[in-house]
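Appendix C reproduces, verbatim, an entry submitted by the partner laboratory led by Prof. M.T., so that reviewers can inspect both the input and the predicted structure.
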Amino acid sequence: DNRRSLHPARLHDALAAELVLDLVYPRTPAVAQAPCNRGALMMKVIDKQFTKEILLSTAFVLVALVALFAFFDLINQMEDVGTEYTLGTAFLLTSLTLPSRIYEVMPLAVLLAAVYTMARWATKSEFTVLRVAGMSPVRLARALLLPGVLLVVLTYGFGEVVAPWAARYTIEVK
């Protein structure tokens, strides 16, 4: 038992972390005897939950911002409807600008979603519980890497693949 080798000041932290782990992952008699890396399991669950919440928040903010910009783009095209093209063409041209709008708005959407998610976790004292369980601030920051990398790849794909194709097709439609 490595509790004996802990400094008395750290013993309280270790016992608190053990208590939190026991509450989150209770031990059954079979589990108590089998060696298990519950800390690594807890980190995977936390990373998945954090990633899921950031991605869902990003999707919500992105849809809201892109819809707002699409509405304004459609309003700007209304003066050309009837003279240069039809209402259906205006909707098509507006929808073809969406990939470039997504590319432009994605950094703002990710920032707002990450701040919102972290603020929500802070108000529910999730970060405090994680710190008591032994998670370092560096490890908490590392939890932001997975959603960050996923969103960078998605933004790159929109900026380098989808948006140029849509822009070329917009020129053909006009």
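The longest helix spans residues 38-77. Additional entries are available on request from the coordinating office.
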